[in-house]
Write a structure and sequence with these properties.
five-stranded antiparallel sheet; DUF3592 domain-containing protein; OB fold (Dihydrolipoamide Acetyltransferase, E2P); membrane; transmembrane; 3 helices; transmembrane helix; about 50% helix
C-alpha cells in the first residue's frame, strides 16, 4: 500500500511538472478516450445482443418456464423441452426485466443450445436500443463541453 502511495505521489509530481498546455492536452485526450471507450463498449454489447437474438431466431424452440431466482446479475428459469429434458441456463435468461420468483413465463430458446441461449418470448435486443443510445449520448454530452473548455484554457 505504501508503495502505491509513493508511486501515486511521483506520478502527481510528474504531471504537475508538465507545462500547463501539455497537461490540459493530455487531460483532453484522456476524456476523449474514456468517452470513446464507453461508446465502443456499448456498441459491442448491443452487437452481442443482436447475435444472441439471431442464434435463437435461427432455431427457435418455445416453452413455459418457471422463474427460480431473481438476482441483480441474472434471472434463473427452469423449463421442459418437448423431449422431456429439464433445462436451467446457468447464466440466466435474456431480457428478464419485470420477472419475479415463481412467475411462469413463455420463453424462446436455441434448439441446439437450450441451456445457453434463452430469452423471454417477444423480447429482443431492440428493446434495449434507447438505453444504449442514452449512455452513449450522455458520455458525449459530458465529454464534448469538457474537452472544449480544456482546449479553450490551453490556448
Amino acid at each position: 500500500m505504501a508503495e502505491n502511495a509513493g508511486l501515486l505521489d511521483r506520478l502527481r509530481r510528474r504531471v504537475a511538472a508538465l507545462p500547463k498546455p501539455r497537461r490540459l492536452r493530455r487531460t483532453s485526450v484522456a476524456v476523449l478516450a474514456v468517452a470513446s471507450l464507453l461508446t465502443l463498449m456499448c456498441l459491442v454489447l448491443f452487437g452481442a445482443m443482436l447475435v444472441n437474438d439471431y442464434k435463437i431466431g435461427r432455431r427457435t424452440g418455445t416453452a413455459v418456464a418457471e422463474v427460480q431466482a431473481v438476482t441483480f446479475a441474472r434471472t434463473i428459469v427452469r423449463y421442459n423441452t418437448p423431449d422431456g429434458a429439464i433445462h436451467s441456463p446457468t447464466r440466466g435468461i435474456l431480457y428478464p426485466s419485470g420477472l419475479a420468483e415463481g412467475n411462469l413465463v413463455k420463453v424462446e430458446y436455441d434448439l441446439y443450445f437450450p441451456d445457453e441461449l434463452v430469452r423471454v418470448e417477444g423480447r429482443n435486443a431492440w428493446m434495449n436500443v434507447w438505453p444504449v443510445v442514452a449512455v452513449i449520448a450522455g458520455a458525449w454530452v459530458i465529454a464534448y463541453p469538457l474537452v472544449r473548455r480544456l482546449e479553450k484554457r490551453r490556448t
